[in-house]
Amino acid sequence: MDTPYIPKASLYKVVFTDKPGLEILAKGTTLAKLMKLQSMKLDLNETDAEKKTFAFKFFAGRVVRWNMAHPPEDDMDEDDITAEGYCVHCGQTPGALMVPSQQSLMCLEVSDVMGIIFGYISAIASVSQGKGMSGSDGAPSIQEEVMRMLGEMQSPTTLPKLS
Ligand SMILES: [Zn+2]
After folding, report:
1. How far apart are the C-alpha atoms of 117 and 103, rounded to whole Å?
2. How far apart are CA 158 and CA 88, in angstroms?
């Protein structure tokens, strides 16, 4: 008992039923952060800039690797592209693989990003729940609470699969 146990960070590969081909390798997160997100009552089409920034920053910090490409030139407005052919917002090349960062998330459609974030949270929360942490006195566990919250705000098409 004298030797401290250093918790090992988990890595999850998250894929999405409604976004075939997208693969995200992400770190886990703490219950404290999940609870903080829960308390914010995020919406799929979140318009509150402060909440959006918090969620994007949180998620960008979790992603280790992904295969997300920048939206192609055809889907961008003319004034979003520099004369040299780069995105004016993130400086990356339209259609090319994006660096996983908060800046990159800002260049995707809000509902897409929120769907991905919800999917990730739901995947992480269900893994924790799978470890048998239910309330012993009949009260719902914190994980069950998180899952219930997710059930309310998640669109059924964004349910992720973990591998
Ligand atoms: Zn961009």
Report:
1. 15
2. 29
Closest CA to 108 of 126, 128, 92: 92
Pull the structure tokens for residue 143: 């994980």
Residue 113 Cα, ligand 1 centroid: separation in angstroms?
A: 14
How many other β-carbons are positioned within 10 Å of the β-carbon of residue 110? 16
For residue 90, the CA-to-ligand 1 centroid distance in Å is: 4
| pLDDT, tens digit (0-9, with 9 covering 90-100), for 50-82 | 888 999 999 999 999 999 999 999 999 999 999
**Domain map of the chain by residue range?**
22-32+45-127
Q: At what angle do helices 31-40 and 110-129 cross, to 10 degrees?
A: 140
Report the C-alpha gap between 161 and 18 in whole angstroms: 11
The verdict on pTM exceeding 0.70 is: yes
Question: Residue 107 Cα, ligand 1 centroid: separation in angstroms?
Answer: 5
